[in-house]
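Hey, quick one: can you model this chain's 3D structure?
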Amino acid sequence: MNKRKYLLTLAVPAVLFLTACSSVSSLYTTDEQKQNNEGNNLAFSASHWQVKSITQGGIIDFSHVTLNMDQSGDINRISGSTGCNQYTGALDVANDGKAFSEDSQAQPFSVDKIVLTRKMCAPALMKQEQSFVDALTSSKSYAILDNTWLVLYDSNNDETVKAIISSPSQGSNIGNADKRATGVNKKSKDAAKKQDVVDSSIQTTSRTYECETPNASTTELRVNTLGPDTKTITINNAHHIVQLSRSASGAKYTNNKGVVYWNKGGVATVSINSGYYHCTINH
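Sure thing. Here's the predicted structure for all 283 residues.
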């Protein structure tokens, strides 16, 4: 009997000690989770992308063109594959540590001092490599669209490179992309095995419009096709991804940000924040 009391006396403090440790552990775990949740979306400085088009043209079948962003201290680097050789270069970019948002304003971007390995490839791959390097070095701004697409633009705001999100940097503390980006991530991994050529019908659907603004001035609207039912529209230096929706007449595209793009023939209308732009295609 005395032995039982002795064991019980030892057991109770032990249980209390373990409970206290568990409570302290949960407190620190909660703090850590909060810290990790602040970076729930990918940061540009530690992102990986698979190129889908170069100067709005297709990518050669089975070639693998990539963009990898990396930060070491205050130094940003860009690296990846040209589809033939490996490359690396110095990267100067704004808001590199900022987490992605669904739509973003164009931010400054520049690449120089690009160094490549010297492997010889088929002439078509070598030509694509040169086009890719030229597109990179001519890029002056970038935008992240729908937490999924990276689009680079030159000084004339023409698209130079378009890439889709790939796997995040291993071992980084930036967390994982949201479910939508993860879904696209799986597609991009499949594309790595067999990268598709951009459909020729898609390449020819880039359009430029002249629009009358709500203030009775004029501005330019650029419309590019990302897929059969998806377009990106650029107006007033802001980029928006819109999806095809039902319309009684013409083609109507919308997103969850209240942006509406409608076009029929050579006429288009854009509605942003209750402001209307009436546009006519440039010939």
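One thing worth noting: The first strand starts at residue 48 and ends at 54.
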